[in-house]
Model the fold of this input.
Amino acid sequence: MTLMVETFEKSSDQPKQDPRGDTRPTDEDLIERFQNGDVYAFDLIVKRYTEQLLNFVYRFVGSQEEAEDIVQETFLRVFRKRNAYKRIAKFSTWIYTIAGNLSRTELRRRKRRKLFSVTDMGFDDRDYEISDEGFNPETQVDGVMQEEIIHREINSLSPKFREVIVLRDVQELSYEEISKIIKVPIGTVKSRVNRGRLRLQGQLKHLMKKK
Amino acid sequence: MPNWKQLESDIFDYVDGLLPIEKRKRIDEQLKNNHAAHEFFHDIKNLRTSLKNLTPMKTSPDFGTVLRTRIRLEKSFSRRAFWGWPAGIPIAVAIGTLALLVYFLAPNNKGQIHIAASQKSDFSTSTLSRGESSIYYTNPNVNYPMDLVHVSQGGTPINSQSRKERSTRLDSAITSPRDGQLIKLEF
Done:
């Protein structure tokens, strides 16, 4: 995706000095500029958050196509409702909340549709393969297969555990931030993360032993 | 022997880097002496590493194009809005109002204005169904047909023969008067 980074740098507004001494504008600065009409600030926001939002949503909903659609819708909502953001909260919390809500809506919609397809069980439209009892999971697997197995096991978690595991262990957000995004107490977040990890640890024990 | 649940919780905090230094040292001791705990700790640590190192997803080649198109549509849509509202709401209200006006003011096939079925007028003792018009008006205060009206104080009944004759003479005087002719009106 080509972005307007060069145009942003030529903008008459000079980036504010970050407290860390870094001249890179903070997310909060960018959204404020966007609220004041600087569309190139929005381009930068899109650049910064596309990959991480896509990762989060993909791991949460399990489909790349739907994940891209949800991420685009998230940016559209940021575009549309830019003035709804207030600087009292972190911008990342706000955008992740939007993405999380859209993802949960999609999962609920999927559940209501009650469509069942064996291809949904696989990884990116791969056909579902009935497990072969003769297959030994402890045989060596390459990195790609390993990731597929991990992705499948993450997908097998219930949404409330899946979401926090992805936010904590994949996206590496803090417990405080996750608590604000999904609007549950920190203790509940930690409890869900630990239960999710326990479940994954049980399913992926054979893979973990190889490391 | 420490409670396993508590130890499990401490190991999770240890892996998350949330334990204070003193507690970390105590856990290190326990892990040295407890093989199951030691294995569990390494499983969780490796799990975290695996999840952290999952290959990041890349967008499809047309992701940017589609997003820009959607934003462009969003911009043009919001530009057409008036009063700060999304354009759809005023348009829907206008169409709805127009439809109501057309329904209530448009004449029906017989040239009469539609009367709502529930309306009752002085001329009707029965409700009209939609689109139906009745030329038969019933007034509870008048007896129909007029031939049977009894006029007790004299006067000429409306449908009497003499009245018809007078009306005919009057009509012909009016429609074809001779010059200078006085038109005598008789009642």
Notes: Chain B touches chain A at residues 8-9, 12, 40, 42-44, 46-52, 54-60, 63-64, 66-67, 70-71, 74, 78 (CB under 8 Å).
